[in-house]
Design goal:
The protein has about 220 residues and is an alpha/beta fold. The chain contains eight helices and eleven strands. Bound molecules: calcium ion.
């Protein structure tokens, strides 16, 4: 049976475009709601497999809708925003969305992201969420597949944060605050360097598999 995607979008042209691509290219079944305050009822009566949620909506905005949904459901949510700089703010609110897409988007990209989020939510449902990573907080050591990773304290803090939330995107700011709890100011480049070193060590231990992925324009996520 086709997976059901709920499109929450008040612009009819965009909604129609998404419907076409998700059905024809993605092979999904779609439902569309054009107001934020109708989402919860729709989800209760016709539970979807994933929600594509626009941020600016009549009735109730996407942030509130996301909060309401998360209070009663673990359905995967992809938030759609019109501004790329809005995404950092959304990440900071920790709404629990699974991914973010910025308008204008390519409909093919949306289909690919929907498939990726569905794949992730299925695999995290039936496997050990942190994959092959084992963290020993007392010894400050981390292993992958039984091999010690030889992490620095900063890399250790990063891995702990990322692996506790598989699939979630962390912005550089969030990672920075986790790395340096005293809020020492460091540059984005310093964050990238630490993440790069951590990725390299993990990749080496995992036989070339990329465990931490860069998410363009946003930050990083742990894929386990
Ligand atoms: Ca809108």
């Amino acid at each position: 049976m086709s997976k059901r995607i709920l499109i929450v979008e008040d612009e009819p042209k965009i909604a129609a475009l998404l419907e076409d691509y998700l059905r024809d290219i993605g092979g999904f079944a779609t439902q569309t709601v054009d107001r934020g305050d109708r989402v919860l009822n729709q989800i209760r009566s016709h539970p979807p497999d994933l929600v594509l949620l626009d941020l600016m909506l009549p009735g109730l905005d996407g942030i509130e809708v996301c909060k309401q949904l998360r209070a009663e459901s673990t359905v995967p949510i992809i938030m759609v925003t019109a501004r790329v700089d809005e995404i950092d703010r959304l990440l900071g609110l920790e709404l629990g969305a699974d991914d973010y897409i910025c308008k204008p988007f390519s409909p093919r990209e949306v289909v690919a992201r929907v498939k990726a989020v569905l794949r992730r939510s299925e695999s995290s449902a039936d496997s050990d969420e942190s994959g092959g990573v084992e963290i020993d907080e007392e010894k400050f050591s981390a292993r992958y597949g039984g091999n010690d990773l030889g992490l620095t304290p900063v890399e250790f803090a990063l891995l702990k944060m990322l692996s506790a939330n598989p699939g979630r995107v962390f912005s550089r700011d969030q990672l920075m605050n986790g790395m340096y709890p005293d809020y020492r100011v460091v540059s984005d480049r310093a964050v990238d360097t630490h993440v790069k070193n951590l990725r390299r060590k993990l990749q080496h231990a995992a036989g070339g598999k990329d465990i931490i992925r860069a998410v363009y324009g946003l930050g990083y996520r742990f894929e386990g």
